[in-house]
Design brief:
Blueprint: E1 3-9, E2 24-27, E3 35-45, E4 48-53, E5 64-70, E6 79-81, H1 85-94, E7 97-103, E8 142-150, E9 153-160, H2 163-172, H3 181-190, E10 194-200, H4 202-205, E11 216-221, E12 226-227, E13 236-248, E14 253-255, E15 259-262, E16 267-268, H5 277-291, E17 296-304, H6 323-329, E18 358-366, E19 375-379, E20 386-387, E21 389-394, H7 403-427, H8 435-438, H9 452-489
Parallel strand pairs: 3-13, 7-21, 15-17, 16-21
Antiparallel strand pairs: 1-7, 2-5, 3-4, 4-11, 5-10, 6-11, 8-9, 9-10, 12-19, 13-18, 14-19, 17-18, 17-20
Helix pairs in contact: 2-3, 7-9
Length: 493
């Protein structure tokens, strides 16, 4: 049966997004700022890593500072600010999506067969925060390794010998440290990591055309390919989400110290999911996360997005990242080799001139119990494509009284029943949760017997019957066996 097609983009998760990166925030007020969701762009080739941290804080920026562990003392040239819109473009392109098909009327098989594409508005509200470090400093075993002004940010690179020293240094300079910070600082200090401390320079910020803080991008060379998430749990409020947009020259990235899994995809779901796709995917992700014991790296997108490769998705819901977007994200090899830069002379994978760019989107939901370690990654040679998508199909309209139309209605009824069953299996929810959406008047199917409002009670009855049947069989078996035992005891058999 011929079909038409429409694609709708989805939001990450139906939850507010409140943070920028995997560090923690210190405050001169009451220390109540909580981390909820992070977005990070991660670029890796050889030993070189580029990390871009999202910032979109709205409020009084002078009261906050951000602390992030880094493996080396960064040079000023290793730090820059980028346009925050790059995150929106990457999310728009890689987000889970809804694919729409239109059934053709079998009684009128010559209907138009054009294909349509449509992008739905995103509902991301990522809010990040940077802050204010103190002007007055005391030694306390803490060394200021470097001090820079980059864009609208005052940046310090600190080192410390003891976690208590760093905590006391920050506290004595007016910062409220979240509870548990000293515990998570200690492993980083013992690993000889430095601390990237950022505050907002109000004078420079006032020169900007808007109130948004731009994302910070850092690059460094290190054999370790990792993201420090433990520090971000110091002032976490429950579970946190992390979206990683990763770019490599060879293939997908994957987590090495936690399991990797692909989100369920290419499933046919009820038409009414379109009205509340965010709630659908939010429930689905939470259910899948629970099924995977809450310690998993979920793959949501993987594709070769090299500028020379025009085909980046199937279907596409937004414009592909341009070469300029990729360079802004930190994909340095598209700009060619910088022969004046000797920072990567120890790189174990020298530049081979390849312009390939592989894009991996990973989604984490983590907490102290399920993610006791920082995230460790590796670049793999896996170039297999993947994207998360769900399929809805609009019913045929018009006169369906012909024999083919009657057969179509029977097929439609069974298909819609299966869609309802798939919905509950994917999301772990009850059909009662979707009753209002399913019984809305805009079902589109004119035949009452195939409308979701009619089918939901039938599906519920069938599911209840499936659940009670095994119990009934057990009871019947007990009765039969018991009766046989009595008859044997009476000498009747």
């Amino acid at each position: 049966m011929k079909k038409k097609l429409m694609i709708i983009g989805a939001a990450i998760v139906a939850a507010p997004l409140i943070m920028s990166f995997c560090g923690f925030y210190v405050s001169k007020a009451d220390g109540t700022l909580k981390n909820k969701t992070s977005q990070v762009i991660l670029v890796r080739d050889g030993n070189k890593t580029v990390i871009t941290m999202y910032n979109d804080f709205k409020g009084d920026t002078k009261d906050f500072a951000m602390v992030v562990p880094v493996p080396v003392v960064l040079r000023k040239d290793d730090i820059k600010v980028v346009d925050q819109s790059i995150f929106q473009r990457l999310d728009d392109y890689s987000a889970p999506r809804l694919v729409e098909y239109w059934d053709q009327n079998p009684c009128n098989p010559y209907a138009d067969d054009k294909m349509y594409y449509k992008s739905a508005p995103q509902v991301l509200n990522e809010v990040a925060a940077s802050g204010n470090a103190a002007e007055k400093r005391k030694d306390l075993g803490v060394k200021v390794e470097a001090k820079y002004l980059v864009g609208e940010y005052d940046i310090l690179i600190l080192s410390a010998k003891e976690s208590g020293d760093l905590k006391e240094w920050l506290t004595s300079n007016g910062y409220k440290i979240p509870e548990g910070a000293e515990e998570v600082l200690d492993p980083y200090i013992k690993s000889n990591l430095k601390f990237f401390v950022v505050k907002v320079n109000e004078k420079e910020k006032n020169k900007l055309n808007n109130n948004f803080l731009r994302p910070i991008q850092i690059n460094f060379n290190s054999p370790k390919f990792m993201l420090p998430i433990r520090l971000g749990m110091a002032n976490a409020d429950g579970d946190q989400d992390l979206i990683v947009y990763a770019f490599t020259r060879k293939g997908r990235i994957e987590c090495t110290n936690y399991r990797n899994a692909a989100i369920a995809t290419d499933k046919n779901v009820p038409l009414f999911v379109q009205k509340n796709f965010n709630a659908f995917y939010g429930n689905l992700f939470t259910h899948q996360w629970g099924n995977e014991d809450k310690s998993v790296a979920f793959l949501e997108y993987a594709w070769d997005v090299s500028p020379q490769n025009y085909y980046h998705c199937d279907p596409c819901i937004a414009t592909a990242p341009s070469a300029q977007d990729l360079v802004q994200s930190g994909v340095w090899w598209l700009g060619g080799k910088d022969w004046a830069d000797y920072s990567d002379v120890d790189n174990d994978e020298p530049d081979n001139g390849s312009k390939n760019v592989h894009f991996t989107r990973l989604h984490f939901r983590y907490n102290r119990k399920s993610f006791a370690q920082d995230l460790m990654f590796q670049v793999t040679p896996n170039t297999e494509t993947f994207q998360v998508r769900y399929i809805i199909t609009h019913p045929a309209t018009g006169d369906l009284s012909c024999d083919a139309g009657k057969k179509y209605l029977q097929e439609l009824k069974q298909r819609r029943k299966k869609e309802l069953q798939t919905l509950t299996a994917l999301t772990g929810t009850n059909l009662n949760n979707w009753q209002d959406d399913a019984t809305a008047k805009n079902d589109e199917a004119t035949a009452t017997e195939v409308q979701y409002a009619t089918l939901i009670p039938q599906v519920k009855t069938e599911r209840d019957r499936e659940k009670t049947l095994p119990a009934g069989m057990i009871i019947l078996s007990v009765v039969v066996l018991g009766g046989a035992g009595v008859m044997r005891w009476k000498g009747m058999v």
